[in-house]
Amino acid sequence: MHIFVTCLGLLLLLPGVASGQDAVRTALLRVQHETPLPLSRLDLPPEDLGLAGARLAVADNNTTGRFMGQEFTLEEVDVAPEEAVAALQGALDQGARFVVTMADADTTLALADAAGERALVLNAMAPDDRLRGADCRANLLHLSPSRSMLTDALAQFLMVKRWDSWLLIEGSHPSDTLLADAYRKSAAKFGATIVEERLFEDTGAARRTDAGPIQVQKQMPVFTQRAAEHDIVLAADESEVFSGHLPYHTWEPRPVAGSAGLVPASWHPAHEAWGATQLQRRFEREAGRPMRPEDYDAWLALRVLGEAATRTESTDPDVLRDYILTPEFELAGFKGQALTFRDWDGQLRQPILLGTGRMVVSVSPQDEFIHRVSPLDTLGTDRPESACRRN
Amino acid sequence: MKPALLSSSALLVLLAAPAAAYTVYVSNERGNSITIIDSETLGVVEEVPVGQRPRGLNLSPDGKELYILASDDDHVQVMNTETRAISHTLPSGPDPELGVLDPSGNPLYVANEDDNLVTAIDVEKHTILAEIPVGIEPEGMGVSPDGRIVVNTSETTNMAHFIDTDTYEIVENILVDQRPRFAEFSKDGRRLYVSAEIGGTVTVIDPAKHEIIEKIGFDVPGVPPEALQPVGVRVTSDGAKVYVALGPANRVAVIDGETLEVTDYLLVGQRVWQLAFTPDEQFLFTTNGISNDVSVIDVESDTVVKSIPVGEQPWGVVVSPQ
């Protein structure tokens, strides 16, 4: 009730806004999962992770909306996992018809099921392939790349480099296992050989200790000793237990990729091609920090709605939703080509950036890999392999 | 077929001889320099170092002043074309990318990518006349032949904004395809061509009625559709032919100005950005951002006659009026 009153007041103040048109109302649900501290303090998550990207997209949408007579609002909700569904109900009751989620796979699924017909859910975090496969939902779209898109993107680059013998080191958490599985599938898909696999057990050690680097310098070489001949060390360590310590500490002088070294991601704060500098600068000016992949994914989610409203010249949620789900929907995302949704699993097709700490090294798909529909479909699960039945 | 070919090439030789020598200026985005080419010899005369990340170029109607939009220096450098030295700078607002000169030579309208503004600059008094708020990431700039309307395209808002140059107010916004890069009026002012890089189209607009006449798509066998990224557009003065640079497709499309059908695709260098005619419209120069060269197209025959190595990552191009 309270929100309704504020909106009405705003409309009266802005005579340019077309009367009778409601604002495009979106809720951003950031579910606060317990996550371990990152290994590097440079990676400490900012308070407004993702949120800053969503806010920028709403500002972008409203700039265009000024010319269209359209308004966009964002309800920002931070919530514990067990209260996520209740928070969603609250947002829906207040009129949100689009919900952007930053949550793990189980919570994302619970939110999508709770939203049902009432809202379109835009996943801006969970990379799980099952959300695009057996557990897909008709009302669930994915802005964040799937794990398999990320691992395929890296695999393509390694194959172009002819670094096709991989030493795979995986962490002991469930998400690490999923990531290692994705690397195994990518190896099979693109013809790489995993010459050996090792498991790095998380013993729950503290993330930082005063004696840290000295011990690591002894541990990591020993851990990677006497491995089968390999071109590269691939780390599947989504929980960030060990991978950050691998570069320069391997027994053999080999590059590291995956969760450390050369990392595949939807965004990189040094990405400058295809006009990206403009988005980076806009973001940095608003947020006062570099843009992270989570910010980009949330920015995309809100831009999807802005773009749909512009193209349909409507703010009617049903009109927007219908248009977003058609093959005509296209979004520009500073990656050199139009981004579109896969109709078989709701995943946004997009190039993946391969970056080190400071530089973007390459962008996949690599030119060497071709596809009869779109080179972007060489990344992740293609239509014939999809287990998703959305209808 | 063979005799016809022979005679037309003989004609070319005959025509080439009396052609006037124009000066071609190419900005090298990465090289921080301007490459100067003689249009008669098609050879490089000189490469002049300038400011940081030079992109858009404009020439004063008398050809004496070259306006260089130095994006990373946040101003416009003015080169005296006789001495080839920078005589002064103009305030432009941050990150100027493309500009367009009023047909009279003043003012210069510049798109400021970072600030969602179009800035009107008095090139004689060196002052800012107006800052006009437009959509997100303004880039393409076109001016009507009578100078009364400036059109700016905004890359994330995806609109062509029509700005009245008397009032500096936006009078109309027309939605075009994704990431519009360039706006070009026909010489009779009856058509406006707007390229959309990610949309892969050129929208043809009736500027008087503010209506879309046609949307032109592109198709090159063997080139993936996502590589067909229209950027620079130029129209012959009789309006008969429209040339569109297709970016990473490494092609320039030739469009029939009457039927608006694509008639030909000319293979040029890699990642072709911008285009400029010689004033007699004998040649069209293209800047090829990745292959570090300029392709020269013979306009009558629509053939690529030469490629000229220039500086690092060529971007903008203009040709002197004399």
Along the chain, the helix and strand elements of chain A come as HEHEHEHEEHEHEHEEEHHHEEEE
**Total DSSP E strands of chain B:** 28
Uncertain stretches of 5 or more adjacent residues of chain B: 1-18
Helix % of chain A is 25-40%
The CATH topology assignment of the largest domain in chain A is: Rossmann fold
Secondary structure tally, helices of chain A: 10
How many H/I helical runs of chain B?
A: 1
Rounded to the nearest angstrom, the radius of gyration of chain A is 22 Å
Query: Going across the major beta sheet of chain B, what is the strand order?
Result: 3-2-1-28
In terms of quaternary structure, what is this?
heterodimer
Overall number of structural domains of chain A = 2
The run of helices and strands of chain B is HEEEEEEEEEEEEEEEEEEEEEEEEEEEE
Put the structure in a nutshell.
The complex is a heterodimer of chains A (391) and B (322). Chain A has ten helices and 14 strands.
Describe the structure.
The complex is a heterodimer of chains A (391) and B (322). Chain A has two domains: 227 residues, Response regulator (Rossmann fold), CATH 3.40.50.2300; 118 residues, Rossmann fold, CATH 3.40.50.2300. In chain A, 34% of the residues lie in helices and 17% in strands. In chain A, strand 1, helix 2 and strand 2 form a beta-alpha-beta unit. Chain B is mainly beta and 322 residues long. Chain B has one helix and 28 strands. Chain B has a four-stranded antiparallel beta sheet, with no helix packed on it. In chain B, strands 4-5-6-7 form a four-stranded antiparallel beta sheet, with no helix packed on it. In chain B, a hairpin with a 4-residue loop joins strand 26 and strand 27. The chains are: A alpha/beta (391), B mainly beta (322). The interface between A and B is medium-sized, with 19 and 25 residues.
